[in-house]
Specification:
Elements (H helix, E strand, L loop, with lengths): L1 E7 L7 E16 L2 E12 H10 L5 H8 E13 L2 E10 L11 E10 L9 E11 L2 E12 L1
Antiparallel strand pairs: 1-2, 1-8, 2-3, 3-4, 4-5, 5-6, 6-7, 7-8
């Protein structure tokens, strides 16, 4: 999937900087209405990049990009109700050079709308909205799209 979110600085009405999100996962169908996913996620936080350049005194822009990049592994469970899916996800950060991560474990709640399957093998495209949090503190709400093979 490919998602996009915007993070606002702590000042209300302050600058909003993008978060680019991607994920690849394997699927295990428990039944027709319940799917498990095991996957690898990626995030690039532009606000962390800008903040890190100005405060952490990285030697290069490449190091600042590495600090703003987050890799994570996740497990998700999706419940399907017709064309709608409700996804619960838990993940763990595995990128050692990432900075400004409040907790190593995160959770994500998502709702997806699936379009009718096309092609062979059948591919279902979807659009979704996701809320990501660390414990009880929300980090962002993201919009995304993807495909399930």
């Amino acid at each position: 999937s490919f998602d996009l979110a915007f993070k606002e600085s702590s000042t209300p009405g302050g600058p909003k900087q993008p978060i680019y999100i991607g994920a690849v996962a394997g699927t295990f169908k428990l039944n027709e209405f319940n799917h498990l996913y095991l996957g690898l996620g990626y995030e690039y936080h532009r606000s962390v990049y800008n903040f890190a350049l100005h405060t952490y005194a990285f030697d290069t822009r490449k190091e600042a990009r590495q600090g703003a990049t987050r890799w994570m592994v996740f497990l998700a469970d999706e419940f399907l109700f017709g064309s709608l899916g409700v996804m619960l996800q838990a993940g763990y950060y595995v990128s050692p050079k990432s900075v400004l991560i409040s907790k190593p474990i995160y959770s994500k709640l998502g709702i997806r709308y699936y379009l009718p399957a096309v092609g062979k093998p059948a591919t279902q495209f979807y659009a979704g909205i996701y809320l990501k949090a660390h414990a009880f503190t929300a980090e962002y709400i993201g919009l995304g799209m993807g495909a399930r093979l």
